[in-house]
Amino acid sequence: MIIMKLSDKIITLILSSISLQAITGCQKEPEFGNDRAFSGTMQDNAGNIVAGDITTTSFIVKALGAGDVVTTDMPIKGDGTFGNNKLYAKQYKIWVNGPVTTTTKDTLLVDLAANKNVTHNFIVSPFIAIDKPTSGNLTATTVDVSYNMAAQNGQSVSKRELYCSTYPFPNAIIGSGAFYTTVKVTLSADAATITVPGLTTKTKYYIRVGALATGSNGYNYSEQIEITTL
Fold this sequence. Notes:
This protein is 10% helix and 43% strand. It is mainly β. The chain folds into 2 domains: 36-126, Immunoglobulin-like; 128-228, Immunoglobulins (Immunoglobulin-like), CATH 2.60.40. The strands form 4 sheets. Strands 1, 4, 6, 8 and 9 form a 5-stranded mixed beta sheet that branches. Strands 13, 14, 16, 17 and 18 form a 5-stranded antiparallel beta sheet that branches. Strands 3-2-5-7 form a 4-stranded antiparallel beta sheet, with no helix packed on it. The longest helix is centred in the N-terminal third of the chain and has 24 residues, at 2-25. The radius of gyration is 27 Å and the shape is elongated. The termini are far apart.
């Protein structure tokens, strides 16, 4: 009799466990972990990229998650893109911080609990709009570069520079190192054609123009071009 009663209890427990598994199996399991992504590109109203610089925090996308007190920052790369694929499944407030004026809604509300991967292109107006430079009259040690820039939204230009470097997406602080060289040229006008000297023969260079608005702590940059000396 005792054995039969124990058997009945075991059978009851097994059936209860099966029923519970059947019920919970129909429900969607909650998702955890930092596997959510937010990414995009900085663009102006004409659809041109607005370039950044990942070596500084002066031009970034900031994301503040629900319950967080510290933002997750996404620097803008030299090609205008940004992103983070290690965010959590929660709601975020997301905005742009840097030498630009946003021309659409300042702050986004993004639900990464409901959407695992969100892409958004910010439309912004840089303090200093800089056209992609062009090159000409290339020699073994020099190149002519034409550039053009214009201050926007009541801003004014306080500093103009051109960077010609063997390192991609050169910037205001890159300088030269053990394995790369950079030629920096100070520019005196918003538009001109200048000769960049002191280059090495048969060498690939990346060229960008940077400008600083009065009172700003972040540079605006042009898209880069590539050349190879003769």
